Amino acid sequence: MKFINDRRQCGTRLVIMHKLCDVALACCLFASLSVLLIAHARAAEPTANAVKEQFSIFEVAMEKVANQYGSDNRQVLTQLQTIEAQVGSLKDFAALSAYRCYLTKQLKDMSATQAVLANLKNKVPEISAKPAIQAAIELCQMYAEEDPQKRDQHLARAFHLIKTTQAATLRYWISTMYIELTTRQGRARDAIDAAKIALGVARANNDRFRQAGSLRSLALVEVDFGDKEDALIHIDEAVALYRQINPDSFNTTGLLNRAYILMSLKRYDDSLKAYREVEQIAIKQKEDTVPPIVWSNYADIAYAQGNFQQAHKEIKRLLEWSQQHQDVFLNSYAKMTAALLAVESKNLEQAQSLFADALQIFQKEDHQVEIRDFYGNIATAYFKNGYYKQAYAALEKKLELNSSIEQQSRGHAANELRELLKTEERIKENLTLQAEVEKSRLNIQRWVFLALLLMLALAWSARLFMQTRKRNTALLVENKELDYQRFQDPLTQLFNRRYVMENSAAIWDKIQQQSAAILIIDADHFKKINDNFGHPAGDAALIEIARRIKLTMRDSDIVVRWGGEEFLVCSFACNAEQARIMVSRVLEELRRSTLEFAGKTIALSASIGYVLAPLQGQTKGFIEFDDSVKLADAALYLAKTTGRNRAVGVEKILQPQRTPTELCEQLAQAARAGEVQMKETLGPVADAS
Questions:
Q1: What pLDDT shows up at residue 546?
Q2: CB distance 136 to 122 below 8 Å
Q3: Among 328, 306, 331, 336, which residue's Cα sits nearest to residue 318?
Q4: How many Å apart are CA 137 and CA 127, to the nearest integer?
C-alpha cells in the first residue's frame, strides 16, 4: 500500500529545411558556426561552463520574506515589493514573477496572476534566449490553467527549460513539482533525474532543509520503483538532517517515510517500532492527522504477519476516523485492507464489494499505479485462499494496467518532447526578430548569418535529440517486451532459464564482486502430485512453491524457474552462515502448511543443493558460473538420495585436486576424502496430526 501522506503534500512537427539531413551540409554549417561563435566568445565576458547552483542575494532575501510571513500570502506579496529593488538579474526577475503567480493563485486573484504573466511576456522579445524567463512563463500559465492535463504540460515544459539554467530557486522549485508529476505517471527515471537536480541545488547552497526534502523525495521514488535498499539509505540521511535542523522538534513526515520503507523491505518488527515512535511524537506535537496514517500501516503489518484479528481492530478505528473527518483516501486504503481480510475470512462477496469501493477515489483521480498495486494485492490474497479464478482475473487486470501505465508513460514523454520543440521554435522566432532590430547598428550580413546558423543548429540538434529519444523509447519498449515474453515463466511469473543463459556474464561479474549462494531447489515427489491429483494440481503446487520461495528471498535476489519442478536462486552478498539460515527458511516455509486444491490436501517439501560462489578451483582462478550451477545440482542429487526434505551445500573447496567436471561427478567421494567442506541442513518433520 502506498504512503498516502506524500500523495496529499506537496502535434506540431519541427520542419528543418529540405535535405538538411545531408551530412556534408550539416558539417559545413557546424564548422562555420563554430568559427563565428569562437570569435564572438573572445570578445564577450567569460561565463561558467557548468550550471551555477548558488542562490543570488535577491533569492536569499526572497526566502527570508517567505519564511518570516509564512502562510499569510497577502503579507508576503506586500513585503516582496519592499525588496524588489534588489533584483539584480533576469533569473531574479523570473523567480520573483513565478512566486507572485503562485501567491496570487492562492489568493484566487486571477487578474493579478494574468498581470504578472503579461509583464513576463513583455520581456520575451528582448531576452528570448533566457530559459529562466520562459520557465517562469510556463509556471505562471500552469497556475492560471484549470485543465489538469494542460497544467502538467506547462510544468513539463518549465522543467525542461530549467534543466540547464543558472536559476537556482526555479531549478529547485520546479524539479520538486516534476518529481510528483512523473511519479504519478510511473516514470521512475525522470522522477529520479528531477530529484537529483533538486538535491544538487540544496547541496550547493548547504541548505540542510532542502537537502532533507530532496533526499526524502528521492527515497520515495526509489521505494516505489524497487530500489528499496537505496531508499532506506537516503531516508536515513534525510531524517538525520531534519534532526540537525531542529533537535527539539521531530519531522514526522520523514519518520513516517522511514517506517514505510522499512515495511516495504519486510522488516516488520523494525517498521512497527518506527511507527509506534512516530505516533507518540505526533501526539506530543499535536499533529492530529498523523496517527490515522500510522493506524493504516499498523493494519498492513498485522495483515502481512497473519495477525488478522489485530488488523481488523486497526481497520475499524481507521474507518471510523476517516468517515468522521471525510478523508476519502484513508477511507479507501482502509477498505482495501478490509477487502484482503474478507478474503482471508472466505467472505468473497464482502471482499469484492469492499474492493470496488476502495478503487473509486483512485479511479476518479486516475491514480493507475495505486490501482495496479491494489489488483496485485488482491490477486495474491485470492490465490492464497484457493480462489484461483478470481486470482487469475485480478492478475490479468494488474498486467493490463501495467502495460497501460508503460504506454502512457511513453506517451507523456513524447508529448513533453513535442511541446519542448514548440517552445524552442518560439525562441528561434524571437531571435530572428532581435536580429532584424539590430540591423541599423550592427553588421547586417554577419548577424543575420549568425542567426540563421543558430536556427539551423538548433533545428539539427532538436532533430538529433528527437531521433535519440525515439530510439531510446523503442529500446525501452523492446526491453519491456523481452522481459515479459522472453524472460518470464508464464506459470510462476518468475524468471525463466533463458534469462539466466543470456545474462550469465553479468550475473557472474556480480557474484565475483559480492559473492553469492547459488541454490537449485527441486520439489519432492512432484510426479506423485501429478499422478494422484492431476496436472492442474501440479501447476497449482508449482505456483505455490514459487510464491513461498520468493517470499523467503530478498528483492535483490534472482529467483528462476529452472525447468520442470526445479528452481534456481542467486542470493548475492551471502556468506556461509546466511546461506544456512536461508535454506533452512525455505525448507520450513515449504513444509509450514499444506496446499488445498479442489478439496484435496497436498503436502509440499523440497530438496536443495547449493554452493557458495565463487569457489577456488584447481588453478588460481575460480570455478566458473556454469560449473558452479552444475556443482549445486550435484549437491541437490546428494540431498535427494539421502532422504529429501533437506539441503546439502558445498561451502568451500579445501584441496582443489579435481577438475570441475570430476568434482560434479564425484562429489560424494570428494567429501569423504576431505577435499570439500559440505553442510547438510534438515527440513522440519511433518506434523503427525
A1: 94
A2: no
A3: 331
A4: 13
What's 343-389 look like in SS3? HHCCCHHHHHHHHHHHHHHHHHCCCHHHHHHHHHHHHHHHHHCCCHH
Task: Name 678's bridge partners.
Answer: 650
Give the pLDDT confidence of 609-621 residue by residue, as tens digits.
999 999 887 655 6
CA distance 187 to 54: 28
59-64: long-range contacts, CB 8 A cutoff, minimum separation 24: 59/92, 59/95, 59/168, 59/169, 61/86, 62/95, 62/96, 62/99, 62/169, 63/169
Q: How far apart are CA 614 and CA 507, in angstroms?
A: 12
Report d(CA 59, CA 546) in Å as an integer. 56
**Which residue in 257, 289, 285 sits closest to 271, CA to CA?**
257
Q: Is residue 516 within a helix (H) or strand (E), and if so which, with residue range?
A: strand 516-523
Strands of the sheet containing 516-523, edge to edge, are 495-496, 558-563, 566-572, 516-523, 606-613, 646-653, 676-682
| β-bridge pairing 558-563 and 495-496 | parallel
pTM of the model: 0.50
Helix, strand or coil, per DSSP, at residue 65: helix
The answer to whether 343 touches 311, Cβ cutoff 8 Å, is no
List the one residue out of 651, 655, 547, 561 whose CA is nearest residue 609. 651
**pLDDT of 293-332, one tens digit each?**
998 898 899 888 888 899 889 889 988 998 888 888 888 8
| CA–CA distance, 73 with 396 (Å, rounded to integer) | 49
* Residue the block writes with cell 533584483: 87
Query: What is d(CA 283, CA 490) in angstroms, rounded to the nearest whole number?
Result: 49
Separation between Cα atoms, residue 622 and residue 614, nearest integer Å: 6
Q: Distance between CA atoms of 665 and 675, rounded to whole angstroms?
A: 14
Q: How far apart are CA 444 and CA 452, in angstroms?
A: 12
Which amino acid is present at 657? Answer: Q
- Do 604 and 590 touch, CB atoms closer than 8 A? yes
Here the cell at position 555 is 528483492
C-alpha cell at 381: 490474497
Q: What is the dihedral of CA 229, 231, 236, 241, to 10 degrees?
A: 150
3-state secondary structure of 659: coil
- pLDDT of res. 588: 93
Positions in the chain short of pLDDT 50: 1-51, 127-129, 413-414, 417-421, 424, 426-431, 433-434, 437, 440-441, 482, 688-689
What single-letter amino acid sits at 323?
Q
38 burial type by CB count under 10 A (0-12 exposed, 13-18 middle, 19+ buried): exposed
